[in-house]
Amino acid sequence: MALGGSAQAQLFPDGFPNPFRAPPGKWFTKDDVTTSYNYCEICFWKCGIQASVQGGKVRKVDGYESNPKSRGMLCPRGQGGVATTYDPDRLKKPLIRVEGSERGSGQYREASWDEAYDYIAEKMNQIKFEHGSESVAFFGHGTGDAWFASYLPGAWGSPNAAKPSVSLCTGPRETASQYTFGRGISGHEQIDWDETDYIVLIGHHIGEDTHNTQLQDFALALKRGAKLVVVDPRFSVAASKANDWLPIKPATDTALLLAWANVLVEEGLYDAEYVDKYTVGFEQLAAHVAQYTPEWAAEITEIPADTIRRIAREMAAHAPRAVLPVNRHTVWYGPDDMHRMRSLYIVNVLLGNYGMPGGYYFCDAPVVEAYPHPALPLSPASGGCGGGSTDVVTDSPFRPAADRGKFFGTATAVQELIEPMLTGEPYPIKGLFSYGVNLFHSIPMVERTKQALKELDLYVAIDILPMEHVMWADVILPESTYLERYDDLLLQAYKTPFISARFPAHPPLYDTRGAFDMAKQLGERLGLGEYFPWENVEEYLDRRLSSIGSSLEALKDQGTIVRRGRPYFADWERLNRNPIGTPSGKIEIYSERFAEAGLDPLPVFVPPIEGPSGMYRLLYGRSPVHTFARTHNNPILMEAHGENGVWISTSEAAGLGIRHNEYVYLENQDGVREGPVRAYVTERIRNDCVYLVHGFGHKTPLMRIANGRGASDNYLQTRYDLDPVSGGAGLRNNWVKLVKGAPDPQHPPVAWLAREGSRA
Amino acid sequence: MTRLAMAIDLASCVGCAACSIACKMENEVPLGVNRLWIRNTTVGTFPNLTVEHRPEQCLHCENPPCVPVCPTGCCFVRDDGIVDIDVKKCIGCSACIAACPYDARHMLPQGYVSKCDFCKHRVDEGRMPACVETCPTLCRTFGDLDDPNSPVSIAIREARRVDVLRPGLGTEPNLYYLNTPAAFGLVGETGGTL
Amino acid sequence: MTEFYGLPFSVHFWHWPTLIHFALVALAGGMVLVTAIASIKGHPKTRTYALITMVLIVLDLITLWVESPSRFRFTHVWLFLTITPTAPIWLGAWGLIISLGSSFFVWLDKGPKMLWNAGLVVGAALALTYPGLALAVNVNRPLWTPVLLVLFPLTGMVTVLGLAHLFKQAWAARWLVTVSIASAVMGIVYLFALATGSAEARQAFEYLWSHDGLWLSVGIAALLVAPVLIRRLPLLAGLVPILGATLVRSLIVEAGQAQFFGF
Ligand code: SF4
Ligand code: SF4
Ligand code: SF4
Fold first, then answer.
1. Are B108 and B31 in contact (CB under 8 A)?
2. How distant, in Å, are the alpha carbons of A222, A324, A358, A603 from that of A198?
3. Structural domain includes residue B192
């Protein structure tokens, strides 16, 4: 009722006000306000920002017009993410695990950077001596992963560099794209929102994913009058904007897509001219999809055949300005995933929209020369959400990555490097760097990960906050935040490719460093100094920028340099070039390469893996105000959304006798329990699944605000199903039941915790 | 005359709270209170559903009930229509908090009342309020109602439907909600069905 | 179903010190009226009443100062430097000050008596009505209805008359009975008007009744104790209505802070 939440509003973090002082003037009334350009690092979208500094502190960040990713706007996380820099719970000094203490027991002593680097170098050399350089694995996420998941392992000589953003996220879509178009999807999904008239989203949570520019484009497209269809077992925020919501049975999306292909082909609605000009394998497809009638799909997907037909016809009527946008997190159900993404691309191709206005545009990163350095002995296939997942290591003196042979693709799968730590097969992995990767909130089978960490000879964690997995490391290197450090240039593939730079708004608050410095220092200690020939980061950046006739000084006043792009086929044809990078030079609807490898050359429907009866399939997604599991100690963002709830349909909840907002436990098929977590009883979800927002359920008192709030989906993911093509780990084949009787954890107000934190 | 007003197109708003958090940072709103918050309400039953994502803040009423009840004159209306607070006169009696039909006002720990002021420091410099500037769905417009070419005038003119909160109270808000997702208008005191 | 990112300030803005103020201002306001009548009629105890009035007003002002979150910024000076007659609190502030001054001179027994009497009458009118007015002006809060414009002065008088009766003021009994009955009747009218009013009023009534129904009934019943017991148990007959009136006032102030908007 109206009087609820009083405790929340009555506690103030500022302590008792000084009664004699007049209301203080706000930051913008002071005269020492300065601004500096940066790009946001709260998520991977990396919007250009301008930080306003006053009194040695960033008070506000704003987007700026000339940056194509922010265009002057920012999402909630970008706005509030600033508070993480001033989080009293941050890692403040290098830490070394007390000798003789067990991993995970959290006993540390402060160390100097020199000591920490020496410690790491010594252990690495020892591992190299005993097992070979490949036995050190490198996991990375964030801007600095260029150093820790590509460059340093390349210089050091380990192919076991991996990013969760591939095999736990974009893997299927990247592999599918590489083998269909011969190019990846860019880190910025290249949907031509400005021109499209008909949008079909498949489990794509725009609005809950607040990827700034994507959300802007989406909203503007709808405002322009584009029609929207949303396919999702849950009535997502995007669904609330849709003309049609198709509450599909989970894990059956491929059947729907194949049926759409069937209708487009059977009814002759596809773009014959486009297909003829740009593709190969249409005949095989036509024969193949004949079996996938809407009636067949209706049985599987629980969407009426008439609806399937109608939507296909509407798409065709708007083609080529009808698009089925590719989403980002595509590791859903395992064996099916790559096929689902291929089916999605093929429906787009049948609509004739790839490389056409209103469909998918082409984009490439702007070219800025690398700082001259000796060739690296190895180029690890860590991939990334911006493509590049087919890097192949040839003629390498090193052993192949430890996950080779488990699946067809070549980008290293992060979750497949855990097993070798435990079994030593195909060869042991004895060392691990985790740069910004939350090992316990991104990789499934957390218990297995913990066991594996115990087997290591060296585990180094580089992070900003004392996340749970960080406090298992032998050496913890505290990183400066994006507001305190320089970083490499951001070379963004985009409709108008652009270059932006990061300038520290103020010096680091604590004894922390950026990835750039850490990699160089460590490299030098490892005897790899020749690969790090630059003096410092300013000189490095300036030299790179000079190759395009700019300079660090110039970028300081400019923030972003925008280039012209070649978005459509017509732009490439004018230059007599072909953007399609497949062996045939055409869009490969039918993949010879898959056929040769004994894989299905055309997408097939793999029936869903079913769970134990009486349990619900666990789906997960995002909160608009949080990124991954990394913003949950930020008081501003946590106050906006401080705990997740498990979505369950009204009718199922009634059957279970569960009331809205009541605390329950979640117990999965293997008996793993999470919670207490609130039941979010809603009409907005099907009866056969439940839904959790990812990232909550932290389990470390070192992060005062995050600790113990809500439930973690990742801890409940005690199994996954490997996509045999991309190496992606299908995470949505876990099932849970709701157990009544959980106590109310009585979380103290965020404001109160924040005040405690700043006093400590 | 200038009559400043804001409009929020609910057909575009996704309830992401970027506006709320931008406001918090810009105006140093302490933890525990908000000048701007988001109320997301589900309407209907499976599968006939919609969600109203509704940001709420001070509506800068034309006829603000909070102003006449202020005993010290610290609540006043600027010439451009911004309902403002002269904090040095505030005695913290909470009469204005009681009078606001929208829970838009809050007490600060320093002992005076605060609320959305349309980011008057930005408006005075010719900039957009922080919430309007940042909104990633561009659903917020702001400007002078007396200028037919201001973004807000255009947005209101082009809207399919225009609503205000609690119209029955005669407050005549200068914050307009455009294109409510539910056919019956804004989700109100008594709710409604699709 | 509704969920929030960030919360509105839909919480209690007035807390227990405000309830004390509402009780004290009832006594003070009532006492001003008693003093006014006594002074006009030339009652022998007029000076004593004036003294009590001053004590009560000062106590109330101290309470107001203590509960104010800006007590050390001394911004209260603006109450008297600005002219805001639309604000019940401004009217109340002047009402109390005028009453204080007039009582002072009545107590001194100096100066133009007519003027002090007029001051006392005006002051009494303001001090007795402004609490109800301060609530009733908030048409957005459905539990604070115009009925309070009558109910609050009446219950205020009940507390003073009860006190007078306790201190064996002969004139008090008759009035205590009358005003108590009138208060109880207005209390019932208040509830009845809510329960049969608009949809919002009915929703508010349900809220009030489910939260405070019992105590509200007790309070109204207590107002009816005086007429029954005034001869047999004069002590209880004085005390119980005071408690009843204070209870009814406090419950309305406390519960009435709810507004039923958007739920
Ligand atoms: S930022 Fe815009 S889209 Fe997000 S909640 Fe605010 S008004 Fe709505
Ligand atoms: S919304 Fe509330 S605070 Fe704002 S002008 Fe209206 S009554 Fe006053
Ligand atoms: S106009 Fe400014 S103060 Fe008002 S809600 Fe928007 S950001 Fe906050």
1. no
2. 9, 8, 9, 24
3. no
CATH number, domain with residue B116: 3.30.70.20
What is the mean predicted confidence (pLDDT) over A476-493?
A: 97
Roughly how many angstroms between the first and final C-alpha of chain A, as a whole number? 35
B161 domain-assigned = yes
Same CATH topology for C1-138 and C142-263? yes
Structure tokens at A495: 């409709």
Q: Does residue B189 lie in a domain region?
A: no
Note down the domain range covering B145.
4-184
Count other C-beta atoms under 10 Å from residue C47's C-beta: 17
Residue nearest atom 5 of ligand 1, based on CA coordinates? B15
Task: Tell whether ligand 1 has an atom less than 6 A from the beta carbon of residue B18.
Answer: yes
Mean pLDDT of A427-432: 98
Give the side-chain half-sphere CA count within 13 A for C134: 31
Alpha-helical (H) ranges within chain C are 16-41, 46-67, 77-81, 88-108, 113-136, 148-166, 172-195, 199-223, 225-229, 234-255
CA distance C194 to C144: 10
Cβ atoms of residues A378 and A212 within 8 Å: no
Total structural domains within chain B: 1
Q: How far apart are CA A33 and CA A213, in angstroms?
A: 28
Q: How far is the CA of A306 from the centre of ligand 2 (A)?
A: 51
Return the partners of chain A (3 or more C-beta pairs < 8 Å). Answer: B, C
* Cβ–Cβ below 8 Å for B51 and A235: yes
Q: How far apart are CA A245 and CA B154, in angstroms?
A: 31
Q: Are A648 and A682 in contact (CB under 8 A)?
A: yes
Question: Shortest Cα distance from A505 to chain C (angstroms)?
Answer: 28
**Protein residue closest via CA to atom 8 of ligand 3:** B23
Q: How far apart are the first and last CA of chain B?
A: 40
C13 contact A CB<8A: no
pLDDT average, residue stretch C103-126: 96
How long is chain C? 263
User: How many other C-beta atoms can be found within 10 angstroms of the C-beta atom of residue A100?
Assistant: 6
pLDDT in tens, A117-144: 999 999 999 999 999 999 999 999 999 9
CATH number of the C1-138 domain: 1.20.1630.10
C142-263 in CATH: which number? 1.20.1630.10
pLDDT, tens digit (0-9, with 9 covering 90-100), for A547-574 = 999 999 999 999 999 999 999 999 999 9
Q: A2 and C4 in contact (C-beta within 8 Å)?
A: no
**Cα–Cα distance between C34 and C238 in angstroms, integer?**
16
Written as one letter, the residue type at B93 is C
| Interatomic CA distance for residues A344 and A324, integer angstroms | 7
C201/B contact by beta carbon, under 8 A: no
Q: Which domains does chain A have, with CATH numbers?
A: 95-169+368-496+512-536 (3.40.50.740), 191-202+212-228+253-360+586-596 (3.40.228.10), 616-759 (2.40.40.20)
Q: How far is CA A760 from CA A89, A609, A755, in A?
A: 9, 50, 9
Structural contact between residues A715 and A672, judged by C-beta atoms closer than 8 angstroms: yes
Neighbours of A204 (CB within 10 A): 26
The chain B residue lying nearest A223, using CA atoms, is B12
CA dist C236 and A308 (Å) reads: 80
Q: Which element (helix H / strand E) includes A492?
A: strand A490-492
Measured CA to CA, the distance from residue B90 to residue B74 in angstroms comes to 6
Tokens 């924040």 belong to A754
Report if residue B190 sits inside a domain. no
Q: Does B56 touch chain C (CB under 8 A)?
A: yes
Q: CB contact, 8 Å: A8 with chain C?
A: yes
Distance CA A225, CA A198 (A): 9
A533, A402 Cβ separation under 8 angstroms: no
Complex-level ipTM? 0.96
Contact assessment for residue A236 and residue A277, using Cβ atoms and an 8 Å cutoff: no
